[in-house]
Amino acid sequence: MPPADAAHTPLWVAHQCRRPKTGNASTRAHERREGRPMSGDDGTPGNSGYGRKAFKRSKSHFADRITADGRDGWPVASGRYRLVVSRACPWASRALVSRRLLGLEAALSLAITDPVQDDRSWRFTLDPDDRDPVLGIRYLSEAYDRRETGYPGGVSVPAVVDVPSGKLVTNDYQQITLDLATEWTSLHRPGAPDLYPDALRDEIDEVMAGVYEDVNNGVYRAGFATGQEEYEAACAGVFRRLERLTPRLERQRYLVGDTITEADIRLFTTLVRFDAVYHGHFKCNRWKLTENPVLWGYARDLFQTPGFGDTVDFDHIKRHYYQVHTGINPTAVVPLGPDLSGWLTPHHRQELGGRPFGDGTPPGPVPADEAVPVRGRP
């Protein structure tokens, strides 16, 4: 069964934390070699283009899968691959949460990019010498170029890179987390939850399809709208879907069944960014998450569950959206708010029952070198 996201191709881009490719292929290659920012055919730098024109969503060009049987040439193997993410990106954050819940930290190493990418793509300026210590590259685009030159689309996270060759394997954010749950089982920690249980997949897919279309992607359609009608339609769709989810989550602790599933991960990564960036920056401001008691309680419950909140960096989130999307926020000023202390307040969702990890157990402590800096926590 294909992932739910793939079944619904919207007119506008899902953004997918992608650095758009601009200019012709030879110019892009020369600009990368010379270390100069890439510019569009009209001379407009990539970052300032956000919010000035509508983005059309393109499918992930690199859709190879890493599977138990290695049918695409990429077998599951401990230590072979490196997951590249931005903590700012909701699509990459899905993979961060899944990796933690499943206990894959030792098997799948992690590279974290600077939240403020430049026009050359996601960069490793958080690391010594501005290079990823494992891949030895300064920009994620280098791993893309080692796989294929002149590829369509942009440089996006999450991305999984083959360490021995330095080549990108996949940037298919729709499939990466499903494969972590179903193909990497031999490397799961003892007590890992089943995030995509076979008996519930039809319902999970149905729920995820609606959440993707109206919420995950809807906030971007609103934020990058270039006309009033486009914006109003997208914004209305966001809140219509959230209001449809509210009675469901008033009755039950999780979206599908009585345990955490992939559906919860996909909704959480949008909700956790809602008041910090989507309410103001993307103008999804009919109400704040904190003003919906049910969804606010649900989001806090997940945030306080090991594997969710310990992957969230609010500093990265705010700096990325407000400093990169200069077409929307030309001053690049980052707001001080909102107050984050509420994320740690009691949620009382346990009164609805449910078993967060099913018959399993919570993940262990966050590896010391992956802990979110104090500045990014509530």
TrEMBL record:
Pfam family, any one: GST_C_2
PROSITE patterns the record matches: GST_CTER (PS50405)
Location of region: Disordered: 17-53, 351-378
Record domain GST C-terminal: where: 194-324
Protein's name in the database: Glutathione S-transferase C-terminal domain-containing protein
